[in-house]
Request: fold
Amino acid sequence: MSGTSLVTARERALAVLGGEPDDATLGRYLHGIAGVDAVGLEQRAAGLGTRSIKTSSKKWALDTIISLIDLTTLEGADTPGKVRSLVAKAMSPDPADATTPRVAAVCVYGDMVPFAIDALGGAHGDPDDGLISVAAVATAFPSGRSSLEIKLADTAEAVAAGADEIDMVIDRGAFLAGRYGLVFDQIAAVKEACRRPDGTSASLKVILETGELVTYDNVRRASWLSILAGGDFIKTSTGKVQPAATLPVTLLMLEVVRDWHLLTGQRIGVKPAGGIRASKDAIRYLVTVAETVGEEWLVPHLFRFGASSLLNDVLLQRQKMTTGHYSGPDYVTID
Amino acid sequence: MSFLEYAPAPESRAILSLRDRYGLFIDGEFVDGRGTPFQTISPSSEERIAEIANANEADVSDAVAAARRAYDRSWSRMSGRDRGKYLFRIARLVQERARELAVAESLDNGKPIKESRDVDVPLVAAWFFYYAGWADKLDHAGLGANPRSLGVAAQVIPWNFPLLMLAWKIAPALAAGNTVVLKPAETTPITALIFAEILQQADLPPGVVNIITGAGDTGATLVAHEGVDKVAFTGSTAVGRAIAKQIAGTDKKATLELGGKAANIVFDDAPIDQAIEGIVNGIFFNQGHVCCAGSRLLVQENIHDEVVERLKLRLSTLRLGDPLDKNTDIGAINSKEQLERIRELSDIGVAEGADRWSVPCEIPENGFWYAPTIFTNVQTSSRIAREEIFGPVLSVLTFRTPAEAIAKANNTPYGLSAGIWTDKGSRILAVADQLRAGVIWANTFNRFDPSSPFGGYKESGYGREGGRHGLAAYLSPAPIGQAALSRPSTRGAVETADGAAAPKARRAVRSATRSAKAATKGSKR
Reply:
C-alpha cells in the first residue's frame, strides 16, 4: 500500500480550513467542531460491546482480525534474530493450519527494517494482496521529543531502508499548548519525508498518544488535525503509555474518519494499538468499525490492530472453533 | 457473507419452565379464576405462551379481602426492619432468576432481550433493593415522625415494562407497610406470575401481594372496590381520567402516571454524535412503547438537515427482528391493536403533509412489527406532533431560539419528560427551569434510577414514583398529637396473628415477631 500525495493533502486542507494552516485558523476550525459527551460516548461503546458474535460470524471475525494485525516488537532489546522470529510468525501464524491468514504487517523500529525485509523475502508486499508490509516507527518514537531535523532524518532513513508504512508520533506538548500550526507543519513535513525517489510514498500513520491527550475533545481535535495535515491513518497509541487503545477512543476516531469521508470522499484508516489482547475485545472493535463507518473499512489499508499477544489468543480461539475444544498456550508458538 | 448480518445469537428458552395454565395469585396461592380464561401470545411470532385466568368481581373481592387480612394481621404490624428483610430477599431472588425473567419478558412483551436483560430486570432488582433500605427509615420520608401506611393498594400496570412497572408499584407500597392487589396488563401477565412464584420462594406472608389477571374490566372492578385505600395506575390518559372520575368523592388516594409527548431539544452546539444516540434511545428504545419517549424532536433550524441525515444513517444500522436474539435492537410491537394505532396515526401524518421515512428493513412474516420511522416537515398543529403514538415514530420539528424551543416544548397537554442537548451548562439549567415536565434529561435520555422521582405535569398525571417522593405516595402523616409516640407497628408486632390466618402466614408472622423482639432488646441495651 502507498500513501496519498502530499500536494493533494495540502490542497484539501486549505479548502476545508479556508485559510493557511496556522495556529489561529486551525484553532478556530478545531474548536468549532461539535463537542464530545464523555458519558454518551462511553455508553455507545459499551452498547456496541454487547453484540454477540457467534458461529460463522465469529469464524469470519477471527480470520479478519489476523489479517488486520500489525505484529509488533518495539523493545530496546530487539535483535535481528528477534525480528526474523517475528516475521516467521507473521508469515505462518499457525504452522499446524495452512488456512490461517497472514497478518497485515510487521511493525519494528527503523533500524530493524532491513532485517524484516530480508526475512520476508517474496512475502513482502501489499497486505491488500495477501502479502506482508513492513511498518517502522519513526520521529523519535515514542516520546517525539526531538528536533524536526532528527525526526525527518529518522523517517527518511526508514523509508530508504524499504519501510512501506511509517508510524509517527505527534508532538503532544505542542498540541496541548495550542500550537496546532506547529503540529500540522511537522506532520506535513514527515509526510514529505515519506516520499520515495520514484515519486511513490510510504503510508503515514499518525500516533495521537490518546493517553496523554486525556480528554475526548482533545482526541477528536488531534484526529482532525492529523487528517488535515495528510495522515493516511490515525493511530491511538504507542503502547508505551497507559491507557493505550480503548473502545470509546477508537469509536470517536472512527466517527471523525466517517465525517471526513462524508465531507471529502476520502477514506482514512484507523489503528487502535496497545492493550488489545483478547479475541473477544478485538471482535468488539470489528463490530464498532462495521457499525460506525461500515464493513468496507475492515480491510488492511483502512483498519489495523497494533498488537503482539492478541495473535496467539485469536489462534487459540480459531483452533477451538476447528477442533471443538480449547488447547493451551503450548499449542501456539511464541515469536 | 456480510459481517453485519451477524449469525443468529438467540438466548435459550430452556431456562424457562412456564406452566400451561396460570391461575390468580391470591392469599399466597394460585387459585382458579372464575372469569373466562384468555391466552397470552408472543407478539413476535403470535405463538401461544399460556392460558391465563381471568378475575371476575368475586375474585377481585377475594384478592382485596386477602390483602386486607394480611394488612391487619401481619404486614402493618411488622417492623420496618422486617419488611425490609422481605424486600431484600425479593431483590436477591430477582437477581438470581434474572435470566429467566428477561427471557420471559422478551417472549411475552416482544422487547429485545438486550433491553430486558440490561435494563428492565436490573432496574427491577434495584427498585426492590432501594425501597428495602427505606422500610425502616420512614421517619425520614418527609412526612414527619411515625407516618402511617394507607392500607390496601390497588395497582394497575401497563404492558410496556411489565415487570419494571410492577417493581415501581410493589416495592414502595410494601416498604411503607401497605398490602397490594396488582393487575398486570392483559397482554403481558407472564413475568408478574413468575414474580408471584418468587414471592412464594421469599416466603412473603400470604395476602401481602395478590396478583390478579384480566382485561380492563378487571382493573376497573379492582379500582372501584370499596376495600381499596389507594389506587396507583400507569397507562393511558383516557383510562387515567376515568379512574380519577371513578374515585372522586371517596377516601381513596391516587397516583396516576399517564401519557406523554416529550420534546427532545437539540441545540446547534450539542455533542452531535451523542445527541444522535440520545434521539435514537429516546424514541426507539422499547419500540417507542415508553410513556416518557422523546417523540417530538425539536432541533435548531441551522442543524436540521445534518441531524436528519445522520439520524437516517444511524437508523439504518438498527437491527429489527427476533426479540430473543441478543443482537436485536428493535423488537415486536406488543399487540395487533397497538400496531393498528401506530399505522393509523402514521398515515394521518402523511395525509397532513409530513414526509415519512422508514428504515428499509426486512419485516418478519408473523407477529406485529413496525419499522423505525421518522417524520420531517411536521408542523406543531399536526396530530403526529400532538398525540401520543406509543410506537417507533419520531416527529421532527425545528426552532430558532431557546425561547421558541421552550414555548414549543411546553405546547402540549402532556408534561412527563423532556431532553436538552447542548454543550453549554448554563443553557441546560436555564431551559430546564422553564420546561413544564416532570423529568428532564440533559445530554442523555431514558435513564432511570430508583432514587430519582418520576411523574408528570398536566395530563401526564399526578403523584411521583421513585425516590423519597415515591414513598410518600404510600404514606400519610401521623395523626396530630401521635407523631411523638412510638410506632404502633413495632409494638403491634409482639401480638401474634389469630388462628384464622393460613398456617404459613402464622409461621411468617412468628418469625417476624421473634426478630422484632430481638430488635427491641437491642434498643433497650
Notes: Chain A has a mean pLDDT of 96. Residues 135 and 165 of chain A are 4 Å apart (CA to CA). The longest helix of chain A spans residues 247-264.
